[in-house]
Every structure is written in structure tokens, then in C-alpha cells.
Amino acid sequence: MTDEGVRVLLYHATTDVAGIEAAYHEASNRLAGVPGLLSNELLRSVTDDGDFVVVSAWRSLADFLEWERGPDHKRQTAPLRPFRDDRLPRPFAVYQVTASY
After folding, report:
1. Total-model pTM
2. C-beta of residue 42 within 8 angstroms of C-beta of residue 20
3. For the chain, what is the domain count?
4. What is the rounded distance in angstroms from the CA atom of residue 94 to the CA atom of residue 52?
5. In angstroms, what CA-CA distances link 43 with 3, 12, 51, 67, 101?
6. Residue 27 class from Cβ within 10 Å (0-12 exposed, 13-18 middle, 19+ buried)?
7. In what order do the strands lie in the sheet with 92-96?
């Protein structure tokens, strides 16, 4: 295993495309400058227009966990919370990068 960081996936479902896009931009602005956060993206499914995923790239699992346990986590991500995909038992996933090119 390499120490190439972590990817966090947050699953969302909505027909309100403008709403989720606005929420994504607001949350991203709130997250600007968070130590260890390298980038994030809002992805839309090509097979189901209502399915979205926010993927964030973190320098390390420790960086992600420190932020997640910190006091700003819930405030920074609050704009996206109404769009979480409640059809899933767990609307998120955390993956360690094990290889990349």
C-alpha cells in the first residue's frame, strides 16, 4: 500500500440540479483552506440524472479524520446535507489510495 491519500465519496440524490450545484459551491467555499484537503468534485450520473457524488481528495487519512472530528465539519458541509441519498444505508464511503499512475 502506498501513502497516496484518501478519497471520500458522498452520495446524493435530487431532481433539483440547480439546488445541489449551489449547495456544492457554497460548501466548497466554506472548505477552502482546510488542511489536507486537496480537491473536490461534484459528479452527476450519466445513467440516472438524479444521482450525484461529491468526491474529495485528501492528503492522508489522518488529515481527513482530524477535519471530520473537528468543530467546523458539520457547518462546512451543511449546504449539501439535504441532498444526501437516504435510499442508501450509508451515504458515504472512504477509500485509501493503494496505487495510481
Report:
1. 0.91
2. yes
3. 1
4. 16
5. 25, 10, 9, 22, 21
6. buried
7. 37-44, 51-58, 6-13, 92-96
Residue 3: predicted pLDDT: 60
Helix count and strand count (H, E) for the chain: 3, 4
- Residue 91: CB atoms within 10 Å: 17
Residue linked to cell 465519496: 9
Q: What is the DSSP letter of 41?
A: E
Is 101 part of any domain?
no
On whether residue 17 sits in a domain, the answer given is yes
Q: How confident is the model at residue 4 (pLDDT cuts 50, 70, 90)?
A: confident
In a domain, 1, yes or no: no
Residue 31, pLDDT > 50, answer: yes
| Cell numbers at 28, concatenated | 466548497
From CA 75, how far away is CA 50, in angstroms rounded?
25
The helix (run of H) or strand (run of E) holding residue 63 is helix 61-69
